[in-house]
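ARCHIVE CARD
CATEGORY: sequence design from structure
SOURCE FIELD: tokenized fold
FIELD CONTENT:
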């Protein structure tokens, strides 16, 4: 018996200390993440209105309803296009900033902190600043004041009569996220051995060739992680869209992320159909997983081709 206990405790009680430090986090992950996910999957097969307790089994009825719901399909299609645009733009912007800041001869810490600082800002507060100060659509708004100074007319940025609201939302998202991914790329750049650059310089490599054949390939693992995080973040868009576009009349029908739509049908309306909302989150999760796996497969195949 004592031998079994000794083996479970591990050498120098390593197993005990492992669970002392990891156990609370694992327990929190289990309670607040995995159990709600499993319960959400279970709930998606039931009719559950105004309660988290399943009432009537409907099978795949919730899934069938959402896959024929024009508003839900439109939000999914719109944000697939949005992801196809915002992911490469954020990727290129954060990589470009990382390269510039990494090569800065002076005040590198200042620039790194200055670009990262927006990441610490609340999405709600940033959305309020964008909406009420920069792009409020009135003649005294900051951007409209600048436009009038250049001889242009005022623009109704968030009214929905045009597509200028996408400029507001894209600039807001870039301001909030580019600094965070810049830090990830800078961490990747720090891992590239200086010997590699010195050898390339001796061989005459300069500028674009150094980036194409040394820097970018060495950042492959960082790039894959950044792309996956950006893709997930694009489909999880909620705070900045909701707080920028919501008005007294409710959320408008345009620029409606899938999560905002699911929030409105599961919690925002009078019916509070939690079963339908759960089915929508499962569909969204499957879509993100499929696109993420396809992305990893493409990157993996390209890596094998370059290696061979």
């Amino acid at each position: 018996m004592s031998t079994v206990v000794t083996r479970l405790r591990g050498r120098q009680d390593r197993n005990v200390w492992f669970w002392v430090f990891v156990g609370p986090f694992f327990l929190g992950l289990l309670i607040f993440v995995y159990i709600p996910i499993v319960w959400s999957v279970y709930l998606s097969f039931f009719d559950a209105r105004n309660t988290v307790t399943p009432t009537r089994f409907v099978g795949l009825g919730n899934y069938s309803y959402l896959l024929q719901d024009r508003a839900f399909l439109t939000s999914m299609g719109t944000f697939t296009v949005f992801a196809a645009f915002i992911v490469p733009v954020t990727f290129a912007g954060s990589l470009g900033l990382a390269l510039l800041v990494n090569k800065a001869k002076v005040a590198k810490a200042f620039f790194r902190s200055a670009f990262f600082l927006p990441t610490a800002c609340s999405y709600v507060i940033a959305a309020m600043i964008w909406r009420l100060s920069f792009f409020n659509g009135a003649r005294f708004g900051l951007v409209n004041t600048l436009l009038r100074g250049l001889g242009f007319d005022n623009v109704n940025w968030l009214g929905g009569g045009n597509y200028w609201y996408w400029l507001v939302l894209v600039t807001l998202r870039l301001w909030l996220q580019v600094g965070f991914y810049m830090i990830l790329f800078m961490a990747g750049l720090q891992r590239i051995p200086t010997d590699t650059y010195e050898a390339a310089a001796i061989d005459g490599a300069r500028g674009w060739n150094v980036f194409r054949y040394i820097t970018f390939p060495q950042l492959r693992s960082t790039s894959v992680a950044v792309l996956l995080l950006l893709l997930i973040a694009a489909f999880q868009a909620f705070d900045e869209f909701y707080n920028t576009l919501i008005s007294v009349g409710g959320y408008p029908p345009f620029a409606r992320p899938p999560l905002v739509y699911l929030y409105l049908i599961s919690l925002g309306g009078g019916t509070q159909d939690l079963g339908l909302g759960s089915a929508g989150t499962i569909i969204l999760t499957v879509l993100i997983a499929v696109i993420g796996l396809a992305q990893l497969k493409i990157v993996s195949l390209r890596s094998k081709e370059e290696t061979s």
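CARD ANNOTATION: The mean pLDDT is 85. Strands lie at 46-47, 56-57.
SHELF: design records, drawer C
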